[in-house]
Amino acid sequence: MTHDPSNDRPSIDELKAVAQPPEHIARYNAEHWAGALYIRHLSIYATKALLPTRISPNGVTWLMIAVGVLGAAAIPFGGIVGPIVAVVAMQLQILLDCSDGEVARWRQRFSPAGIYLDRIGHYLTEAAIPIAIGLRADQWTLSHPLELGAYTAAGLLVAVVVLVNKAFTDLVIVARAKTGRPLLDDVAQTAASKVSGIARVRRLVGHLPFFRAFVAVEASLLALLAAVVDAVHGDLVGTQVLVVVMIPLALVTAAGHLVGVLTSSRLD
């Protein structure tokens, strides 16, 4: 569909046709389940509101980064209030994550910098959340910034594993680029393992997707659930248990991801 990229006040139908093409929404890995369920229905209105401001697509991405990091930073504070702020922030972050691409598609302004900043935003946010949960479990406060304990160390460990796990995905792109191979289509077939036993395990794990515990939206909801347990018990047992459980889950998730990459067609 042809359109005028300089038109800052398109109708919702015009904007949807250009900014939310079906082939983009149907991507296998890149689209969060919340996107199709409800965020895309809201982000198009946010995008419509952003267009007259003349903010650039990268400007929207910077907003996404700030919202995600600040939302994660709220987790250690205010009892149950901090995790609630984090949950709201992660919802806003995914909305802005949708809107930056929608603004780019409408204005026909695409750049490697936009993709780079988007990756940085997700890396920072999804590493910051387990660190913040660890700080909360150790009752960290601004008045005693150096009093860090075992739970903070555990949160830092989980953050490192989360970053390594995310790198496993991006390193596929690096490996293919360095060997002159084209980008892969974002479809289920490319992620499927060629080893039948591993493929069956991956299908079973899909029914209990614990690996999503390290995605920003789900991680913030787990932090809130733990905070509710804390409030009921009058201590930090919910958050402390969550930190401990996150360690083996993160390690299994990363190991499974690495095996999945190495046994799929992604590196062929």
Taken in chain order, the helices and strands follow as HHHHHHHHHHH
Question: What is the CA–CA distance across the termini?
Answer: 35 Å
The CATH class, by name, is Mainly Alpha
What integer is the average pLDDT?
89
Task: Tell me the domain tally.
Answer: 1
Supply Rg.
Answer: 20 Å
Q: How can the largest sheet be summarized?
A: none
Q: How helical, in percent, are the residues?
A: 55-70%
**Superfamily at the CATH H level?**
CDP-alcohol phosphotransferase transmembrane (TM) domain
Low-confidence stretches: none
Shape: globular
What is the count of β-strands?
A: 0
Number of DSSP helical runs: 11
CATH names the topology as: Four Helix Bundle (Hemerythrin (Met), subunit A)
Strand content: under 5%
Structural class: mainly alpha
Transmembrane segments: 60-86, 148-168, 210-229, 241-262
Organism: Terrabacter ginsenosidimutans
Keywords: Membrane, Transmembrane, Transmembrane helix
InterPro entries: CDP-OH_PTrfase_TM_dom (IPR043130)
Give a structural overview.
The chain has 268 residues and is mainly α. The chain has a single domain (12-140, 148-262), classed as Four Helix Bundle (Hemerythrin (Met), subunit A) (Up-down Bundle). It is 70% helix and 0% strand. It has 11 helices and no strands. The longest helix is centred in the middle third of the chain and has 29 residues, at 150-178. The radius of gyration is 20 Å and the shape is globular. The two termini are 35 Å apart.
Write out key terms for the chains shown:
268 residues, mainly alpha, Four Helix Bundle (Hemerythrin (Met), subunit A), 0% strand, CDP-OH_PTrfase_TM_dom, transmembrane, transmembrane helix
